[in-house]
Design a protein that fits this description.
alpha+beta; globular; five-stranded mixed beta sheet; two-stranded antiparallel sheet
């Protein structure tokens, strides 16, 4: 079996749930580490319209990009006055693969697996009157990772909108 050279490029993986549940209660192990989520008596389910799912993948991707940006500063003297310019290092281009989770429970299942594997994960929380009170996690994004690191965690999830 021939392996494509693209197999070894790092990619960002985004996961968006088709249905979100809010509120959810965090379940922790005996040492207080979160291991899953469960519904409450007031939990509601909200089916995500395709347009909103698309927006959520953009939101979490932008959040991850800003969180991982390499910020630099440049100090200069202009007319005897200290000037400071803040900017990001040149942009690194990564392919983003967007996957669908069935719901918030599967999204959190994947989140906990990624964290356990030592992969940095970024989440986006949205507020919308349809979601009820507070905010709800509507998407997650990994740090750029190799194809191999996603095996056993993300490889079973379908592409978002595959074949539509």
């Amino acid at each position: 079996m021939e392996i494509s050279p693209y197999t070894f490029q790092e990619r960002i993986y985004v996961v968006v749930p088709e249905v979100v549940f809010n509120p959810l209660r965090m379940v922790c192990d005996s040492e207080g580490a979160p291991i899953s989520v469960e519904s409450t008596e007031s939990t509601i389910a909200v089916v995500q319209p395709k347009g909103r799912m698309g927006a959520q993948m953009v939101h979490v991707g932008r959040f991850m990009g800003m969180a991982t940006a390499e910020w630099q500063t440049e100090h200069t003297l202009v007319g005897g006055v200290q000037q400071c310019k803040v900017f990001t290092a040149p942009f690194k281009n990564y392919t983003t693969i967007t996957l669908a989770a069935r719901d918030s429970f599967e999204l959190f299942h994947v989140y906990f697996l990624l964290v356990k594997a030592g992969i940095t994960v970024y989440t986006f929380e949205d507020t919308n009157p349809e979601y009820g009170e507070g905010s709800v996690v509507t998407a997650l994004a990994t740090e750029p990772i190799s194809w191999e690191r996603r095996l056993g965690i993300l490889d079973y999830l379908p592409l978002l909108w595959q074949g539509e």
